[in-house]
Amino acid sequence: MTGTTINQTEVHTPTDRTRWRLRVDEGRQTWHYLSEEEHKANPQTDIEKYWLGLKLDAPELAKPKTAQEAARNGYEFFKRLQNEEGFWSGEYGGPMFLLPGLVITYYITGEKMPNGWAQEIIQYLFNRAHKDDGGWGLHIEGHSTVFGTALNYITLRLLGVDAEHPVCVRARGTLHKLGGATGSPSWGKFWMAALGVYDWEGMNPVPPELWLLPHILPIHPGRYWCHTRNVYIPMSYLYGRRATFPLNDLTRKLREEIYTQPYGSIAWYQQRNNICKADEYYPHTRLLNFLNGGLVIAEKVTSRSMIRKAALRAAYAQVKYEDENTHYLDIGPVNKTMNMLSTYYEEGKESEAFKKHLKNNIDFMWMSSEGMMMNGTNGSQLWDTALLTQGVVESGLAHEKQNHESMKRILTFLDVQQIRKNPPFMKEAWAFSNKHQGYTVSDCTSEGLKAVLLLQGKLSYTEDLISVKRMEEAVDIVLAMQNSNGGFASYESVRGPAWLEYINPAEVFGNIMIEYCYPECSTACVLGLSYFRDQRPNYRRDEIE
Q: Which end of the chain is more exposed for a tag (fewer CB within 10 A), N or C?
């Protein structure tokens, strides 16, 4: 992903980019840094060279004279980036608050990162430091914030960058100008508290007791949007047990570096609602501040009670459900690292669950010419491939003989990636990334279905790999996701009332408490159902229409 904040630096030495290889396995895409011997035995492909910014071996194509010729040239090049499983691997970057959670979790658990990761994460953060002030924002195009600058500064220090390195000096200066780390939003306060460089008293409560409430109540977290819910599950578990890394020499130094006053002189209670204006996108409502004040009082009682023990068990049970249902990939990298840390404290680093978390972190890591980032999911494989397929078929390029093999490989990928097993509400759906992660999105199933209908219904040379029964079950899923107002939301039907936004505690995101119906999801679902109706007019026709 290209941005305007690139600040190339020669101060840090990255790895040898020619030794990186991208491996695929049933939709998984993982980068590996090879030894010199492995590197010589496994030449890089154009796919790897493209993403690493290295020179390709692509031939010069004839200059197009028409739009169709330009499209043909474009796909001729794009086929060089299609992998052996039929999909297109790619970056899904942008957020600048993902790497800190990963690095802090590795540091707390004492695990060593795979070869090449630390150097390239440092390189990425160096390159992504804001060109004007040296800080980092919420995302690659954003202005510097306390959230981005404090956490990424801490990340560099945990990876071994000296406090007096020019990048750290500049970032620290910006952090201090913004008022220091006390002005971080709640997610930043959480990660710093877990590391032991911020006091839990300076964070608004995240009570795990909410999981003990009756589900019928509108404030039950089961009614939240699934991304929000899955972040606050492990956060409530870790907050509830005050899981804190023991102080060491480095974290003592960090306590001195990230604040504008001595650590011991900070009135932590007063920092709960201290959010830097550069960070604050969604200010607290009076209702939220009132409820937080009550929770602070309640916390003095519940934190030492049997209720807290029951609440921690309930919260961790939800962590386990999420891990097991997604093969330890989780809905995204934020709760992935929090779940991993929760597993470490609950089951220990020798547990099978922790080892599975550790093994699957690689699915989120992406190498680029700028260094190593953490993708916003474990990829966008299905989504990208399904949309590309529609463009190639509808442009007529799929009918050209030189593209037949490419189309067949896409169909094989779509066949393999349709989710064939439950947990409930997943079977015969398509996910955003791959079947292993398992979360369907309404538009992903719809776009996957459209791609299959085009490949099997419009092309004479493809096999019917995906049966009518499987397509019917995909239609069942899409129809079941329609809301009472006729629209389609993303992952689930709308479960909670809109007024839950009044207690949105995130500060940096709006409209995240519940699901919402979206024009994009609704359009994708309507078109997917329409394509299906045109080819299979007798299945649930009245409901589709």
A: C
Query: What's the Cα-to-Cα distance from 90 to each of 77, 363, 452, rounded to whole Å?
Result: 15, 12, 21
Kindly indicate the confidence band of residue 57, based on its pLDDT and cuts at 50, 70 and 90.
confident
323 is catalytic: no
Question: Which residue's entry shows tokens 């840094």?
Answer: 33
Helices of type H across 419-512: 442-457, 468-480
CB crowding 351-361: b at 16 or more within 10 Å, else e: eebbebbbebb
Which of 384, 443, 476, 534 does the annotation list as catalytic? 443
Spell 219-245 as b/e; 16+ CB within 10 A means b: ebbebbbbbbbbbbbbbbbbbbbebbb
* Chosen domain end from 358, 374, 390: 374
pLDDT digit string, tens, across residues 450-496: 999 999 999 999 999 999 999 999 999 999 999 999 999 999 999 99
- Is there a contact between 385 and 415 (Cβ–Cβ < 8 Å)? no
364 and 408 assigned to the same domain: no
pLDDT in tens, 131-152: 999 999 999 999 999 999 999 9
Write down the pTM of the prediction: 0.95
End residue of a domain, out of 374, 402, 435:
374
**Token pair belonging to 384:** 């990208």
Interatomic CA distance for residues 100 and 107, integer angstroms: 10
Residues 6+ apart with CB under 8 A from 422: none
pLDDT tens digits, one per residue of 231-275: 999 999 999 999 999 999 999 999 999 999 999 999 999 999 999
Structure tokens, 194: 């877990």
Give the rounded distance of the alpha carbon of 75 from its chain centre. 28
If asked whether residues 321 and 416 sit together in one domain, one would say no
